Amino acid sequence: MPELPEVETVRRSLERATVGRVVRSAQVRRADVVRGIVNDAALLAGRRIGGVIRHGKQLAILAEADGHDGSCVCVHLGMSGSLRIGNGTTQLDAHTHVVWRLEGDQTVVFRDPRRFGGVWLFPSEANLRDTRWTALGPDALSIQPSALHERLQRTRRAIKAALLDQAVIAGLGNIYVDELLFQIGIHPEQPADTINFKRTQRMVRVMRRLLAKAIEAGGSTLRDYADAEGQAGRYQQSHLVYGRSGQPCRKCETNLNTHLVAGRTTVLCPACQPMFSSS
Ligand SMILES: [Zn+2]
């Protein structure tokens, strides 16, 4: 599933290719994938694209504010969704749910075979932020240590479960939570409220660096993830624990092992990530 670095990579590639262009038409090929009041204006048809924004793992394409209401299309890629730039010859299939045709023979195609993602239409960016996005915690790239600490103090759940909860912090999934907890030496089952402020500060510092490096590498491609231009990510080559169960830890050479935490397969180093470590 695309996490913050993958979604941010899609956002950047989509922004580069589409901002300033006029949407000539929008076609919904599968109605139940699109929520909200569906009409041409809401789907940005006839409007110029003004920006592409992101919060956590969700994207939104904004109409340029030019005196009209600023229609806004929120896209959640879910498990298998993609947004790709194409042209008039791009092949559409049964999993192609929405097609936007832009000036200059360009298309933006939303495809989602497993349909855990979707498209939500809003009259404005403010309306999106005041409704759908209020369910999300602060974005993982900009959350402040004090805000994260306060949120972690409120729950006895395993730290991994808390970090995966999009209402606590938005953007992290299984890959980057495992990488983060390894890098800071915290056991994934440690109760969230036992992590002190100093360690939370370090967590935020390491998380920003981890996410920035992953974005720089275009995200992680495990199966079919690619950015809006079809480029696969390269960060999977830098994973220290994710996908490396049974292999030696890159810090101490102990074999990495697998636990089930928060219902998710979790890879950790038993030596580098002791339970209740206080350092
Ligand atoms: Zn280790």
Can you characterise this structure?
This protein is an alpha+beta fold. It has 2 domains: 4-135, MutM-like, N-terminal (N-terminal domain of MutM-like DNA repair proteins), CATH 3.20.190.10; 145-268, Helicase, Ruva Protein, domain 3, CATH 1.10.8. 24% of the residues lie in helices and 22% in strands. The protein has helices spanning 4-18, 125-130, 145-153, 159-164, 174-184, 197-216, and strands at 23-28, 34-35, 49-55, 58-63, 72-76, 82-87, 96-102, 106-111, 118-122, 257-261, 264-268. The strands form 3 sheets. Strands 2-9-5-4-3 form a 5-stranded mixed sheet. Strands 1-7-8-6 form a 4-stranded antiparallel sheet, with helices on one face. A two-stranded antiparallel sheet has the order 10-11. A hairpin with a 2-residue loop joins strand 10 (257-261) and strand 11 (264-268). Helix 1 crosses helix 6 and helix 3 (145-153) crosses helix 6. The two termini are 32 Å apart. Zinc ion binds at residues 249, 251-252, 254, 269, 271-272.
